[in-house]
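User: Reviewer 2 asked us to show a designed sequence for the structure in our supplementary figure. I'm pasting the structure tokens here. Could you produce the per-position amino acids so we can include them in the response letter?
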């Protein structure tokens, strides 16, 4: 994932910072507890297509 793109992308709902999870190819918003998939190097920033993130997953991110 391009570092410059990661620096400017924000959560479409709360406009908060996203955490890049390379292993899952996702961008995670801690506040909204949503993970946005990255498909073919393109982030899918649609709330309807995001998956819910559990508290356990957020704790593992540790950021």
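Assistant: Here is a per-position design you can include in the supplement:
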């Amino acid at each position: 994932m391009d570092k410059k793109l990661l620096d400017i992308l924000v959560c479409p709902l709360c406009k908060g910072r996203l955490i890049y999870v390379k292993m899952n190819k996702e961008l995670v918003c801690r506040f909204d507890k949503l993970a946005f998939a990255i498909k073919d190097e393109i982030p899918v920033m649609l709330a309807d297509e995001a998956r819910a993130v559990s508290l356990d997953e957020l704790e593992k991110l540790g950021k």
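For the response letter, you might also mention the following. The mean pLDDT is 93. The two ends are 19 Å apart (CA to CA).
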